[in-house]
Amino acid sequence: MAEPIRVGIVYPQLLGTYGDRGNAEVLAWRLRQRGHDAIVVELPAPDPVPAGLDAYVLGGGEDMNQAAAVKLLLGERGDGLRTALADDVPTLAVCGSLQLLGRVYLDGAGREVPGLDLLDLETTATGSRSVGEVVARMPDGTLLTGFENHGGRTRLGASAQPLATVLRGNGNNGEDRTEGVRRGNLIATYLHGPILARNPALADRIAELVLERRGQTGPLPPVEPDPGAALHDARLRAVGFGPQRRPPRTRSGAVVEAPVSGSSRRTRRSPARWGSRS
Description:
The chain has helices at residues 22-33, 63-74, 79-86, 96-100, 195-198, 200-213, 227-238, and strands at residues 5-10, 38-43, 55-58, 91-94, 104-106, 112-114, 121-137, 143-156, 164-168, 178-179, 181-183, 186-189, 258-259, 266-267. The strands form three sheets. Strands 2-1-3-4-12-11 form a six-stranded mixed sheet. By secondary structure, the chain is α/β, with parallel strands linked by helices. It is built from seven helices and 14 strands. Helix 1 crosses helix 6 (200-213). It has one domain (5-267): Rossmann fold (3-Layer(aba) Sandwich).
């Protein structure tokens, strides 16, 4: 019998301020709905984070908790997580965890907090907080919906690729319309909700990445009825965007005439599968 799929939630006492552990629960639930044995494994601080899990989820935290998490993860206790990320294990990092995976975070008191230097980005706490609903479009035309609440302004470096383009809200910094960042199977975002509860297409893509690493390829069958799809459409409607239908695809993965809800613009052929290495 195959081992269950293990989804690790990293240091929830420090990085669980905004209920982002729900992302791990949603990912495991959507895998179980397709007949896969999946469990959530809590990885409490200050224990070492083990390598070898199938996926990792990191949530948001306040400045002091974030600094404490970074201190632990920069040391031996973080060896397993850094090994997993180097091996491109599917990982979702939200809000404060996006910041701590970067090079440096300058907090509200002007203190420089070193990051794990795994993503090409820097964050500075400056100006008013970015609070409110966000809608952003991924490269394949899929709309993301979420709630942002952060004081940091994140700038991506030349080698970083944003997860999505902001259509409503602030995203990384409120200026360049970038939201989140992706690198291989590592996805980082400012969106709460939890983001995987609100965005079943994103959750299922992460689930597919997990299964691909176990040698199981191909699209997942639909969940019917799908509470995530209903929530996704409801949150889009709440901010003036119509429900979105998943765009049709060719065998090569191209998006065909995918309308952007709430806009007259149309996406063209996606240059690359969004979850591929950049």
